[in-house]
Design goal:
Length: 285
């Protein structure tokens, strides 16, 4: 296999810093991503931003069927040539502008066989958007295995006192775990930060139905969480004032949810937010 440098030179491609193009060159990391994603022969995998196809090649070697979604047209000839005759389809699109339904349709599988996994070495600037899209929009993947900035991965896996709205969403919609930490030297060119690979097993509909119940929708829940985090380090009773409820009503909701009135959003775990959201929904009726 051509080394990445030779491959990029052959097609006249230079990494673009503004697009977060840092390419993996460490084979142990590539195999670690595939291991973490639990790829099996016949699995359908969507890969966002395959670039020169280093991760794509590992997924295909495991027997996966891969749909690569690439925005950068410079990589189109490279990907077509490199994976001709293999179980690879290239979508020349921005993954964030295509519905999950249309992405899955690219596999050409019959209805009822639309399960897939998402695996990607993401440009760090689109991490939040990708997580939100694939955790909230149907059809959801069975799992997401993503290379992220290590600081972001640490925040997603943080405990009480260091929570973020993104961490709450991820842990309500799925079960995240760290696969590995990845030093900056595993990339060419090397980024200025270290990275980490996380795997998120997405909860099925029965699990989500049990969490949200009959009174609460995922959209309403996430809207309340985002509102709570809208002002960093602000007390919940202040940031949730945007709901238009009187202070006494907000305090009553916090009390019913067994949350101290001076709590800050980063102190609440998903179950705390669930109790609070249910109390707030009841108050707004």
């Amino acid at each position: 296999m051509l080394v990445i440098k030779d491959l990029l030179e052959k097609y006249g491609i230079r990494p673009v810093h503004d697009r977060g193009q840092n390419f993996l060159v460490e084979e142990k990391v590539l195999s670690g991503i595939a291991d973490g994603a639990e790829i099996r022969p016949g699995d359908a995998v969507i890969e966002i931003g395959p670039g020169p196809g280093v991760l794509t090649a590992e997924l295909l070697a495991r027997g996966a069927e891969v749909v690569g979604v690439e925005l950068d047209r410079r990589f189109y000839p490279l990907l077509r040539d490199r994976f001709v005759g293999q179980k690879f389809r290239l979508l020349e699109k921005d993954a964030l502008s295509v519905s999950n339904r249309d992405l899955v349709a690219a596999f050409g599988r019959p209805p009822g066989q639309e399960t897939y996994s998402l695996v990607a070495n993401l440009p760090y600037g689109i991490t939040s958007a990708v997580l939100e899209k694939f955790l909230l929009e149907e059809p959801k993947p069975l799992s997401l295995t993503l290379m992220l900035q290590r600081e972001v991965a640490d925040r997603l896996l943080a405990g009480r006192g260091d929570m973020s709205s993104l961490a709450v969403m991820v842990r309500v919609m799925g079960e995240p775990r760290r696969v590995m930490n990845v030093p900056r030297g595993a990339f060419r060119p090397s980024p200025k930060v270290d990275s980490a690979v996380i795997h998120i097993r997405v909860f099925d509909q029965s699990h989500l139905a049990a969490f949200f119940g009959d009174k609460l929708s995922p959209d309403a829940f996430i809207r309340i969480v985002r509102m709570g985090f809208s002002a960093k380090r602000k007390k919940l009773k202040n940031s949730l004032g945007q709901l238009g409820l009187e202070g006494s009503v907000l305090e009553k909701s916090l009390n019913e949810a067994k949350i101290p009135p001076d709590s800050r959003p980063e102190q609440l775990l998903p179950e705390d937010w669930r109790r609070l959201a249910l109390a707030l929904v009841d108050q707004r009726k």
